[in-house]
C-alpha cells in the first residue's frame, strides 16, 4: 500500500522542521500518525488551535509576520471555504508566506456528504491574487510540495487526496514546470489534475484498444499556470478533454478554456467535471463517480464519442 499524500507531506515537513526551527505547523485539531512525532518532538513548532480553522489562518499569518514559516492543516473544505475572508485579507492581500494544507480533495470523504466534499475550492482559491495552488497527484509529489512550500515567498494552497493512490512519479522529479506530459498521443489530449490523473491514465489505456491515441497531461500547479508548456502540449493533439473531480464552474476546465481563449487557440474542448449540483449519493467514491459520469468506462465513452468514433 503506497504512503498517503498526507503522511508523505508531513513526514518530509518533519525532516525539514528538525533542521529549521522557523517552520511551524498550525493544526486545526486534526490527528495523524505523521503529526504525532511532530507534536512530540517539536512542541514549540506545533500549535493546535482546536476546531477553529479561521483562527488557524490568523495565527499562521501572525507567525509569518514574525519571521516564521507557517503551515496550516485541516480538512480541505474547512481550510478553504470556512476561512476564505481570512485567506483573502490576511494571507493574500499581505502576500504572506503561509501554506494552507487541505486533505480530502473532491469526494475523498465520500459518505460524509456535501459538507465534507471539496468540490468548489479550486474555483474560489484561484480567484485570489498572489496565491500558488498545487493539486497533488501522488505521494512523491506530496513530499516535494513540502520542500517547495518551505521556499515559497508568498501564499500557497496544497490540495491533497485522502486515500493512498498509486505512485506515478520518480523521486528525482523536481516539479518545477507546473505540469507533466505523462503520455503522448495525437488524437486527443486529456488534461487532468490530482486524483483524476490516475483515472485519465486508465482511460488512455482503455481507449488504446479502440485505436485512439490519447495523451495525458498532469496540470498539478493550477496557479501559476505554465502557459507556454501547456499550449505546447495541447498543440500536439487534435482535441482536448479536461477531467477533474471538481464542479464544472471555475475549475480545471475553466482554466484550460480561458487559456485557449486568451491565446487565440481554436481547439475543440470537452470539459468533464461534476455537474452544477451537490451530490447526496452514497455507496462509495466510485459509485458517486458512476452516477455523474466520471468513472473510467463513462469517461472513455465520452472521449470516444468526442473523437467521432463509436464502440
Provide an overview of this structure.
There is one protein chain. The protein is α/β, with parallel strands linked by helices. It has two domains: 5-160, Rossmann fold; 180-306, Rossmann fold, CATH 3.40.50.920. It is built from twelve helices and twelve strands. Helix 1 runs parallel beside helix 7. The mean pLDDT is 95.
Q: Kindly identify the CATH topology of the largest domain.
A: Rossmann fold
What is the terminal-to-terminal distance? 35 Å
Largest sheet: 7 strands, mixed
Low-pLDDT segments: none
Order of helices and strands: HEHEHEHHEHEHEEEHEEHEHEHH
Under the CATH scheme, which class of the largest domain?
A: Alpha Beta
CATH superfamily of the largest domain: Thiamin diphosphate (ThDP)-binding fold, Pyr/PP domains
Name the overall outline: globular
Question: What's the CATH architecture name of the largest domain?
Answer: 3-Layer(aba) Sandwich
Q: Which structural class is indicated by helix and strand composition? A: alpha/beta
Q: Fraction of residues in helices?
A: 25-40%
Question: How would you write the strand order of the largest sheet?
Answer: 2-1-3-4-6-5-10
Key terms for this structure?
311 residues; alpha/beta; Rossmann fold; 2 domains; seven-stranded mixed beta sheet; five-stranded mixed beta sheet; 12 helices; 39% helix
Short overview:
It contains 12 helices and 12 strands.
List the helices and strands and how they pair.
Blueprint: H1 5-19, E1 23-27, H2 33-41, E2 46-48, H3 53-65, E3 69-75, H4 76-80, H5 84-92, E4 99-103, H6 121-125, E5 132-135, H7 139-151, E6 156-160, E7 180-183, E8 188-192, H8 196-208, E9 214-218, E10 221-223, H9 227-235, E11 239-247, H10 252-262, E12 269-274, H11 285-292, H12 296-306
Parallel strand pairs: 1-2, 1-3, 3-4, 4-6, 5-6, 8-9, 8-11, 11-12
Antiparallel strand pairs: 5-10, 7-9
Helix pairs in contact: 1-2, 1-7, 3-5, 8-12
Amino acid at each position: 500500500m503506497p504512503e498517503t499524500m498526507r503522511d508523505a507531506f508531513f513526514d518530509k515537513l518533519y525532516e525539514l522542521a528538525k533542521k529549521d526551527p522557523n517552520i511551524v505547523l498550525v493544526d486545526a485539531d486534526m490527528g495523524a500518525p505523521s503529526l504525532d512525532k511532530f507534536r512530540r518532538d517539536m512542541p514549540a513548532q506545533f500549535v493546535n488551535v482546536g476546531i477553529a480553522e479561521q483562527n488557524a489562518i490568523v495565527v499562521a499569518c501572525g507567525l509569518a509576520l514574525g519571521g516564521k514559516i507557517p503551515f496550516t492543516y485541516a480538512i480541505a473544505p474547512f481550510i478553504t471555504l470556512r476561512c476564505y475572508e481570512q485567506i483573502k485579507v490576511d494571507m493574500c492581500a499581505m502576500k504572506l508566506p503561509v501554506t494552507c494544507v487541505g486533505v480530502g480533495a473532491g469526494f475523498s470523504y465520500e459518505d460524509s456528504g456535501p459538507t465534507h466534499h471539496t468540490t468548489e475550492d479550486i474555483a474560489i482559491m484561484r480567484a485570489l491574487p498572489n496565491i500558488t495552488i498545487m493539486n497533488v497527484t501522488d505521494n512523491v509529489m506530496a513530499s516535494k510540495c513540502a520542500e517547495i512550500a518551505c521556499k515559497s515567498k508568498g501564499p500557497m494552497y496544497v490540495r491533497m487526496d485522502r486515500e493512498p493512490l498509486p505512485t506515478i512519479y520518480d523521486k528525482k522529479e523536481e516539479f518545477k514546470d507546473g505540469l507533466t506530459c505523462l503520455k503522448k498521443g495525437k488524437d486527443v489530449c486529456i488534461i487532468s489534475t490530482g486524483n483524476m490523473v490516475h483515472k485519465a491514465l486508465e482511460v488512455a489505456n482503455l481507449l488504446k484498444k479502440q485505436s485512439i491515441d490519447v495523451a495525458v497531461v498532469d496540470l498539478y500547479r493550477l496557479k501559476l499556470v505554465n502557459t507556454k508548456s501547456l499550449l505546447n502540449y495541447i498543440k500536439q493533439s487534435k482535441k482536448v478533454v479536461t477531467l477533474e473531480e471538481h464542479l464544472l464552474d471555475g475549475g480545471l476546465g475553466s482554466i484550460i478554456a480561458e487559456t485557449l481563449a486568451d491565446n487565440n487557440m481554436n481547439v475543440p474542448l470537452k470539459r468533464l467535471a461534476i455537474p452544477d449540483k451537490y451530490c447526496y449519493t452514497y455507496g462509495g467514491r466510485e459509485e458517486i463517480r458512476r452516477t455523474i459520469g466520471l468513472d473510467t468506462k463513462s469517461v472513455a465513452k465520452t472521449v470516444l464519442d468526442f473523437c467521432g468514433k463509436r464502440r
